[in-house]
Amino acid sequence: MRRVSRITVAGVATATLAVALSACGGTSSDATSSSSSGGKSKGLALAYDVGGKGDQSFNDAATVGMTKADKEFGYTSQAVEPTDGESDADKVQRLEQLAKQGFNPVIGVGFAYAPAVKEVAAKYPKITFGIIDDEQDKAANIADLVFHEEQASYLAGVAAAKTTKSNTVGFIGGVDVPLIHKFEAGFKQGVTDTKKGVKVKSQYLTETAAEGGFSSPDKGASAAQGQIDAGADVVYAAAGLSGQGVIQTAAKDKVWAIGVDSDQYKQDALAKYKDAILTSAMKDVAGAVYNLAKSVHDGKPETGVVRASLATGGVSLADSNPVFKNNADLQAALKKAEAGIKDGSITVKTS
After folding, report:
1. For 78-88, how does the pLDDT look when each residue is reduced to its tens digit (9 = 90+)?
2. Is the distance from CB of 265 to CB of 277 less than 8 angstroms?
């Protein structure tokens, strides 16, 4: 935020998964089991964030990294779906089950897994745990996989400011949390630094993820319609699966949408709307997942904060849309902005 034959993914019925997980409330004594004491890994495991597989965004990007690791290392990895209204205890059970089955690393896809990763990592010290988009968990066997989202969002703001004809653009955040504030802050700064007088309308879909801010295309569509009706002709959404509704509405009203996390112009589920997708502010979740799996495979697991940026290639703007790629004035502005961020002459806000 988001089928391959070698992977046991969450196409298994959710009810079946729930039964399996409810029967596995592991304890600290489980950490001595053969599957979690340094034996050969079956592969990596992903515990998906809200929206699950098929979000065309965050979770799907993580799946790409898993698929790459499977092909390269001969793994049979696994990914499991979240359930509606689940608690931290449910997440703990899910991660414990994956660790006991012999998966290594085990990755929580999204900041909501932070409490569960902290608890389960302490029980399974020989398993490497990863968490994407959170850096509060600190332990010798935890990798915090985080990104400078504000940098890619700044470039999205430059693109919006150079593209708008109405001098009004929009930002739609899935959930009102600090992570999404980074997207908004970078976008607004990029707009303002590029073209004075452009108005940025901002809206968050929900206060909490449990209310569906990352998983409700209808909420995204409604918010986008409101901003478009108020004059926005470029709308940037950082809202996971809800962003599909934003893109569909932009296409219907013949204005521009800016995607997020993955190159949404290339995604099959959005193919009929791709001509409305100017670009996407990407973060290389796939690369982060693959790199952690490779580090474990190589016997040198990544731990601590692993932060991706424009300088490392971990965040970027997609250039798949020819209208975007062939706009020389826009590309020159983006090149200048990217250079400024990399050399430190532009400091991008995070809130």
Report:
1. 999 988 778 89
2. yes
